[in-house]
Amino acid sequence: MTRHEQTSLVQIDMLRALARSQHAVARMMDSAADAACELHLDEAMLREQLRALAGYQSSLIARLSGLRLRAPKQGAPAERPWLAPGVAGKSL
After folding, report:
1. Where are the alpha helices (DSSP H) in 40-84?
2. All structural domains of the chain with their residue ranges
3. Which residues in the chain show pLDDT less than 50?
4. Which of 3, 12, 29, 76 has the highest local Cβ count within 10 Å?
5. pTM greater than 0.85
């Protein structure tokens, strides 16, 4: 087996482990929602618990994939940033 094939198999195994973990986290979220309904838990507490589980999920993805997922930023979009200053005012 070549090194590339070995690397591919390891990556596939990591993705399978990640899928199992995602499934487990989804079950935890379902259980937390069910418990909140049954026990009439505080909405803020449930929201915090779900935020913690989502953070765990993001950490796990970052560790396994090597990628950091950043939260979307709010703000005004740039206006035609790809155009030179002399061209920006002209209609296309």
Report:
1. 43-65
2. 3-65
3. none
4. 29
5. no
